[in-house]
Amino acid sequence: MKIAFLIHSLEVNSCRYRVLQYIPYLKEQGIDVSVHFYQRKWIGKMKFYNTLNQYDILYVHRKLFPPIEFWTIRKKVPKIIYDFDDAVMYRSSGAQSPHSLSRRMKFSYMMKRVDGVVAGNRFLESEVIPYNQAVEVIPTSIDLSRYHLKEYRSKGDPVTLGWLGSGSTVKYLRSLLPALEKVFLKYPHIQLKIVCDEFPESSKVPLIKKRWSADEEEADLKSFDIGLMPLSNDLWSKGKCGLKILQYFSVGIPAVCTPIGVNRDIVEDGVSGFWAENEDQWEDRLLKIIQEKGSWKEMGLKGRERVERGYSLTVNAPRVLNVLKKVLHSEGR
User: Fold this and answer.
1) Residues 184 and 286 placed together within one structural domain of the fold
2) How far is Cα 208 from Cα 170, in angstroms, rounded to an integer?
3) pTM of the predicted structure, to 2 decimals
């Protein structure tokens, strides 16, 4: 089996966790794998598209193509799989309207014509089913060999609340600042550590600003006492696949999250963390978990067990391979 993976970049988290980390496993299983990048210019695109007849399957990650371009691709390759972990058929959080005619048109056109779809959660699956029944949910997965449990030692203040993410999601953290400022007034021994390439400002909460580094990611996660994953309640957020929480849990720290989409599936409220839906709940749940310092290790271990059961590379790599085999032997569209 010869597979071409088409992705945005080696550095994009979604590409790393949805595609790149599976490649060593697939190669071990005897699959001929190559990775290619989206081209901006037509000359580069056509140079690659003209090689597609060499492959059994083109595995497209996340990108929605205009119909004429996808029609060109479809003619040149026997089978196509589409993988996505965001609600790409909608506009992102904060847009005046979530609905986009052009996004929906590209999405529906492609879904009707691909041979298989891998969706990151049940909400995304539900968006595919009206157009294509050949869809399987495979959650974003963690290679647990890269993450080791935090060592809990008795320590004094401060309590470090942590958030790790990209500049495109820092807006969710900004929306949480009013609740964090209220928590700080009642418990002034907290600090907020932000690992990102863009940082919000607060004159009331002590901030630690740290630029993300692959080499330092695990150490940064372990420096957190409690992980945060706020979201807004909208269609775009329902497509999120909970990577932050999975990373927090992988090093054994509890999380407080907005129970939107897959967050509700990953975090067991009161067991591995807490749910918070509005500013008052965020203030209440954060104060509660801060004051339950003795339960952090147990809650974090429950989170790690959740990753081991359903969100690990060990569990989901064979599922990706099964999708490839199923599509390879399916009737073409």
Assistant:
1) yes
2) 14
3) 0.93
